[in-house]
């Protein structure tokens, strides 16, 4: 039996877009999380129920492939399914579709449950997965990992202070904010005239309210390597492939 799919329509609004009128990558991530949350709520697996088990869902890795970013006013369809899981990891897929049903973006995510008591990965409770009809398997798909930063190259750095409004209900930075931090290190002219086509990101350590982080980037033509650092600790790594707009 395949996992249950869930879909909903969404109109792209101006505050989800950049100055070119296209949906930002951070907002795209927010929409993917939204559709998965809405599926969970429909199945009775809302945040209150998950938290009652002493855990919260945390994403550890995304692989995002973008064909075209939709523009302000465009109506799109969000689709997702919790495809498979094992004892510690859950694999979820996401689609962003245009009005004709063509794929604008496809994403894969690896999720874990984090214990609120220990702030460490916990065994996924079976009752959290049963309603999705996900396949239980010993071998989940492996997402491509981002590259380590080429420190021999020129590194651009931008500091950030984590604000109260950057924090989600798990007590750490909402993962969509990482994408703003990562891409904001690139020149505005580059961002206006290039489109991301492939994004690999891995979240390695928590970032919390009040932390001082540094977003670093190395650019090799149409590939950019990124990392978010908390002191000497790497919080996230990402690799982005671009095309000219």
Automatic annotation (TrEMBL):
Which stretches make up the Acyl-ACP thioesterase N-terminal hotdog domain? 4-132
The record ties this protein, via PANTHER family, to: OLEOYL-ACYL CARRIER PROTEIN THIOESTERASE 1, CHLOROPLASTIC (PTHR31727:SF6)
**Acyl-ACP thioesterase-like C-terminal domain location:** 156-244
Organism domain of life:
Bacteria
UniProt xrefs under InterPro entries: Acyl-ACP_TE_C, Acyl-ACP_thioesterase_NHD, FATA/B, HotDog_dom_sf
Enumerate the UniProt keywords alphabetically. Fatty acid biosynthesis, Fatty acid metabolism, Hydrolase, Lipid biosynthesis, Lipid metabolism, Transit peptide
| Protein's name in the database | Acyl-ACP thioesterase
- Family stated for the protein in its record: Belongs to the acyl-ACP thioesterase family.
Q: Which Gene3D superfamilies match?
A: Hotdog Thioesterase
Pfam families, A to Z:
Acyl-ACP_TE, Acyl-ACP_TE_C
From the UniProt record, which GO molecular function terms apply? acyl carrier activity; fatty acyl-[ACP] hydrolase activity
């Amino acid at each position: 039996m395949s996992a249950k799919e869930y879909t909903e329509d969404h109109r792209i609004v101006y505050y989800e877009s950049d100055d070119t009128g296209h949906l930002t990558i951070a907002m795209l991530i927010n929409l993917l999380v939204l559709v998965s949350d809405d599926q969970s709520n429909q199945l009775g697996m809302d945040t209150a129920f998950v938290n009652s088990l002493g855990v919260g869902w945390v994403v550890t890795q995304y692989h995002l492939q973008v064909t075209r970013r939709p523009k302000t006013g465009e109506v799109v369809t969000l689709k997702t399914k919790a495809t498979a899981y094992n004892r510690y990891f859950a694999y979820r897929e996401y689609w962003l579709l245009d009005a004709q049903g063509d794929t604008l973006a496809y994403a894969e995510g690896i999720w874990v449950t984090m214990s609120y008591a220990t702030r460490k990965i916990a065994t996924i409770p079976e009752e959290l997965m049963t309603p999705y009809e996900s396949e239980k398997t010993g071998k989940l798909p492996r997402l491509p990992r981002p590259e380590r930063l080429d420190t021999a190259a020129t590194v651009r750095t931008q500091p950030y202070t984590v604000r109260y409004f950057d924090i989600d209900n798990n007590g750490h930075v909402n993962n969509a904010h990482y994408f703003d931090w990562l891409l904001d290190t690139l020149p505005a002219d580059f961002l206006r005239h290039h489109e991301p086509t492939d994004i690999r990101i891995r979240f390695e350590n928590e970032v919390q309210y009040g932390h001082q982080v540094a977003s670093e980037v190395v650019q090799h033509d149409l590939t950019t390597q990124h990392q978010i650092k908390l002191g000497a600790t790497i919080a996230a790594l990402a690799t982005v492939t671009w095309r000219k707009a």
